[in-house]
């Protein structure tokens, strides 16, 4: 070993000891803060978003922004665990993108709760069996997840955070060659997100929609040799089910991203860079929808999403899911919401929460 290499390693060893001391000092302070909360929420999305934004602003590399957020989310997760291990419900089984999103946001899951449906995620959080829930709400290619929107109208839960997860699909199988594939299993949304790739490379393969990509990977693993069964799923699913990656990143749009919501039984304070989600219904009069948008313009509140959805109350009646910039406690947003209440036949604030951090 050269003297220069030894010196570098000695310096790393010394820095590691300093890091250990500092992380434990942070953990002690976090535990002390926990005793001062008097039973308040352990997970504070607005505070964690502020911490991550400050660190990203200060980061000068060579670590990437993604690396910095991953490291400090892990640190914060382990500090939270000194107070309580949070139970997080998600659409399972393990190996789904919902699990990946939950792991990303919470810095790893100490008490994961796999659910068989989005409905069950809502039920587990509403009943208190889970502290938080993570559900998909929209994809940049395939659009909104209708079941999540329907349940948001009916639930008493609050949206307390959002996660944006870049989604990369892979073709997994026990088969050795792409030409052997006769059937492809995946979630319907994933099949849609890989539609053009499948048309080009597997035009004659049968496409079967299943409940989750993890189930698809399980079916591919269980298929007898020579059946030519493949799954579209994540690389984590390939590891979990011991499958080969026949083709990587097969999504049609390389920017393919799924947005997830974090559900809780409590509201969230402003973080300084927030988003408010609401659902509104227009009165059955001419110009009603235009009238709903006027207060946002009047109080200079920027709208980032406006999507219609059947109300399921009457034939051809619709509600509108709206996202605006700002927290409902911000003066401009609060004034706009007050005016909206007068004009809408129904208005429900689904939650105000920090804008997703990398």
TrEMBL record:
Entry keyword Amino-acid biosynthesis: yes
Location of the ACT domain: 277-354
Limits of the Prephenate dehydratase domain: 87-265
Subcellular location: Cytoplasm
A Gene Ontology biological process term: L-phenylalanine biosynthetic process
Site (Essential for prephenate dehydratase activity): 258
Ranges of residues in domain Chorismate mutase: 1-87
Protein name: Bifunctional chorismate mutase/prephenate dehydratase
Protein source organism: Methylovorus glucosotrophus (strain SIP3-4)
